[in-house]
């Protein structure tokens, strides 16, 4: 007998909604910071700890801000797809082809986020100087790249399982 966990699903929905709001607020903050860096470069860069950095450092920081802005809709896609999957679980029918498509979209989005993360690390390393080091705590993680592969595999497994279920229901 399967056991239902409505509290867990309700909590998941609340967390996903909170993360969606937080994602939008983060995007707004980055946008304000980017605009402020264009209006008052010296003040913003000093506040960010790059006060006497070169124009290359400033451009690198702005490029990282642009990448951060580009990440906002990608994260939104992940969160909305996860919310849709949680809703199908709540409705009692999660093994549908639509969820396989959602998992694949999440996999592509997480891949895009990892590529953005890699780009941030490359930019930070390229423009960082001894006097103004850009330390974003960047590091390569095999775990995150394996998670991307896992999401693609799970999407395929979900798709095949949902199609098999549809075929089985059609024969009964």
Plain-language structure description:
It is built from five helices and no strands. By secondary structure, it is mostly helical. It has one domain (6-171). The radius of gyration is 21 Å and the shape is elongated.
Mind sketching the topology for me?
Elements: H1 6-39, H2 41-47, H3 55-91, H4 97-127, H5 142-171
Our measurement of the CA-to-CA distance between the termini, rounded to an integer number of angstroms, reads 22 Å
How many individual domains?
Answer: 1
Structural class: mainly alpha
The residue-averaged pLDDT reads 88
Largest sheet: none
Low-confidence stretches: none
> Count the strands?
0
The helical percent reads: over 70%
Strand content: under 5%
The Cα radius of gyration reads 21 Å
Summarize the structure.
The protein is mostly helical. It has one domain. It is 81% helix and 0% strand.
Keywords:
about 170 residues; mainly alpha; about 0% strand
């Amino acid at each position: 007998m399967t056991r239902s966990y409505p509290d867990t699903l309700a909590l998941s929905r609340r967390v996903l909604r909170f993360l969606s709001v937080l994602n939008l607020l983060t995007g707004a903050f980055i946008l304000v910071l980017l605009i402020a860096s264009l209006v008052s470069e010296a003040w913003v860069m000093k506040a960010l700890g790059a006060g006497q950095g070169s124009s290359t450092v400033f451009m690198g920081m702005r490029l990282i801000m642009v990448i951060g802005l580009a990440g906002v809709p990608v994260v939104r896609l992940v969160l909305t797809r996860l919310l849709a999957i949680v809703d199908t679980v709540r409705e009692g029918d999660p093994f549908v082809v639509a969820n396989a498509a959602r998992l694949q979209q999440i996999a592509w989005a997480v891949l895009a986020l990892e590529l953005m993360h890699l780009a941030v690390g490359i930019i930070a390393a390229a423009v960082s100087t001894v006097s103004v080091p850009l330390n974003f705590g960047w590091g390569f993680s095999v775990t995150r790249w394996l998670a991307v592969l896992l999401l693609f595999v799970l999407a395929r497994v979900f798709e095949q399982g949902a199609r098999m279920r549809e075929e089985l229901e059609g024969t009964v």
